[in-house]
Amino acid sequence: MNRLKLWLLINTLFITIITTQKLLAQNQIPTTLDGPFKPVTRRFDPSLRRGSDDLPMNHPRLKKNATSNFPEQISLAISSPTSMWVSWVTGEAQIGSDVIPLDPASVASEVWYGKESGKYVSRGKGNSTVYTQLYPFEGLSNYTSGIIHHVRIDGLEPGTKYFYKCGDSSIPAMSEEHVFETLPLPSPNAYPHRIAIIGDLGLTSNSSTTIDHVIVNDPSMILMVGDLTYANQYLTTGEKGAPCYSCAFPDAPIRETYQPRWDGWGRFMEPLISSSPMMVIEGNHEIEPQVSGITFKSYLTRYAVPSEESGSNSNFYYSFDAGGIHFVMLGAYVDYNSTGAQYSWLKQDLNQVDRAKTPWLVAAWHPPWYNSYSSHYQEFECMRQEMEALLYQYRVDIVFSGHVHAYERMNRVYNYTLDPCGPVYITVGDGGNIEKVDVDHADEPGNCPSAGDNIPEFGGVCHINFSSGPAEGKFCWDKQPEWSAFRESSFGHGILEVVNSTYALWTWHRNQDIYKDDSHGDQIYVVRQPELCISSTLEGGGKPEDGGGLTNEAADLLARWTWFAASIEMLTVAVIWTSFY
After folding, report:
1. What pLDDT band is residue 120 in, cutting at 50, 70 and 90?
2. Please, are residues 333 and 287 in contact by the beta-carbon 8 Å criterion?
3. Is 124 helix (H, G, I), strand (E, B) or coil?
4. pLDDT tens-place string over residues 436-482
5. What architecture (CATH level 2) is domain 40-527?
6. From CA 471, how far away is CA 469, in angstroms rounded?
7. Phi and psi of 197, rounded to 5°?
8. 484-488/40-42 β-pairing
9. What whole-number distance in Å separates Cα of residue 30 and Cα of residue 298?
10. By C-alpha distance, which of 132, 145, 133, 156 is closest to 76?
11. Tens of pLDDT along 293-329?
């Protein structure tokens, strides 16, 4: 009887072990160590619409609910590991032929904050401003904003929840209580819970689905990689926006904008970015030219970024730390040449990164360098030629971009060549904007752009034919490029979850999967290999990481041995247990 019991138990345990191993194999998330991957294309689902109209300004998520000088459009941005920017808007914006700017000094900028709800033991004061968008053409409307407030609160403890109100206590006009949690200090062992990456969002019903999906994923911070509001898809009189501006408004004397869309976007985003900091970088839809030559006025005025804190002194490019990640946000619509101020700042910033404290190095800018879609194909080749070698030298791990309204993840690549030490480039310009999703690939018959297509709105034209590889001598590949691992035309957003100093889980969530549990469009572990890719970093300066610990191969071997040892231990325990019965 005892032998029968033992045999049955051992047999059950053996089946359990085999079944578990098979289940783990089936559900195993791939890693970049498994690459480079064979290129995969998932076609646009014809049951879905390629786009949708913008939400109207009287939509509940866009219309103004704050009265008088009470704060609205409240947002957060990281200033440093121990400080946070709080921004908001008060007063009434004006639009018409004659607009008179509000007096910024008429309403104070205060933030009350503390670690307990209702107990605000600290106070912060800041500055305020207004901006105007002027169009001196007959029939066009001018705009002047409400009062835009920015307050930097400091002395914050890492990984701590804070409650806050903002406004002017003398009126009194203070906001309702909001709450945020600070990020961990720079450390190889501490990371934000989740980081949402969004590009080309806009204000459509697709945008609403994206943000609803992001809120469900509960991010610690948001990376917004350009093209926020699409206010420049409108005439100054408002009316209805167009997916193609030049098609709908061929006689416009200038690229007009309807600035109240910025206010609507601020209200639309407030439920998310009043509790999770949003780090923005400019896109082409933020250019918004005025006759006087002024550009980017809305972008530069409305949202705070740590430009002074990171030594750039420019809202077009800056850097910041979030736990063990150093983020570099670059500007594609200002001078990026190797002789310019941005390049000089970038080189100095990268040289100061201590990979022992912030092992992960992540960069972001709006237009992608690697892109196999027809839209914006090789558009910013000049920027790539100027900056790519520097980023490769300092071993940037991941690069996020938008601009192309689709999703694409690359194999590790450098100079159009597969390279295990190159960054993983990811395009997430699929937030849901009015311009619709991109579906054409440059490598498909009839879709290769001509040399006169895809002219950038800033910088030169550097279109090239490939000098080597399967596309040698050609402007476009005749199949999906080997550096393009996966692409799909769907709206969505991404979530980055850094696990430790070498592993980070990247998940791309499609909008159509919002109601499906544990569903996603793409998922992979990005694995750093500092022991393989460290020499160039040392040659270029910077501070290398410790290099201690197991290699990825050793870690994998250890995991397999641990599983085997645990299985043997279970069997041994079973034998001992049955011997007593």
Report:
1. very high
2. yes
3. strand
4. 999 999 999 999 999 889 999 999 999 999 988 889 999 999 999 99
5. 4-Layer Sandwich (3.60)
6. 6
7. -120, 120
8. parallel
9. 41
10. 156
11. 999 999 999 999 999 999 999 999 999 999 999 999 9
Q: Please answer whether residues 166 and 88 qualify as being in contact, where contact means their C-beta atoms are separated by less than 8 angstroms.
A: yes
Both tokens assigned to 579? 């011997």
Boundaries of every domain in the chain: 40-527
Report the residue count for the chain. 581
CA angle 435, 436, 438 (to 5 degrees): 110
- What is the C-alpha to C-alpha distance for residues 229 and 198, in angstroms, rounded to an integer? 13
60 pLDDT tier (thresholds 50, 70, 90): very high
CA distance 503 to 505: 7
Give the chain's radius of gyration (CA, Å): 26
How far apart CA 52 and CA 210 sit, in angstroms, is: 13
Q: Render the burial of 236-275: b for 16+ CB within 10 Å, e for the rest.
A: beeeebbbebeeeeeeeeebbbbbbbbbbbbbbbbebbbb
Gap between the Cα atoms of 425 and 63, Å rounded = 37
Residue type, 234: Y
**Per annotation, catalytic residue among 149, 213, 326, 376:** 376
Q: Is 441 a catalytic residue?
A: no
CB 510 within 8 A of CB 489: no
The closest alpha carbon to 279, from 333, 327, 209, belongs to: 327
- Angstrom CA distances, 301 to 145, 424, 541, stand at 10, 32, 35
The token pair at 468 is 């080597």
Mean pLDDT of the chain: 90
Query: CA 303 from chain center: how many Å?
Result: 16
Measured CA to CA, the distance from residue 77 to residue 221 in angstroms comes to 9
CB atoms within 10 A of CB 513: 16
CB neighbour list of residue 105: distance below 8 Å, 6 or more residues apart = 128
Tell me if 532 sits within 8 A of 421, measured CB to CB.
yes
The whole-angstrom separation of Cα 39 and Cα 481 is 7
d(CA 145, CA 103): 11
pTM of the complete model beyond 0.70: yes
- The residue behind tokens 């569903």 is 519
Sign, Cα dihedral of 229, 233, 237, 238: negative
